[in-house]
Amino acid sequence: MHSRLRGRGYAQVCPYCASGADSSSFTKAGKVINIEGNPESPVNEGRLCRKGANTFQLSAIPTA
To answer: Is 35 helix (H, G, I), strand (E, B) or coil?
Structure first.
C-alpha cells in the first residue's frame, strides 16, 4: 500500500538546496513514515535531489 494511503500528508518545500523542490511528508501516529517529491509540482515534477531524497533518513535516525 502506498504511503499516501497509510498516513496523513503535509506539503512542504525541501530546504536543502536553492531549487525549492516541493515535497510531501507522510505521518502516522505522530511519526514520519515517508518523504517524497510532489508529482504535481512544476518545479521538480515529483523528483528530489540526493539531499532531498534522504530527508526521511534524517528524520528517522535518532541523534545523540
So the answer is: strand
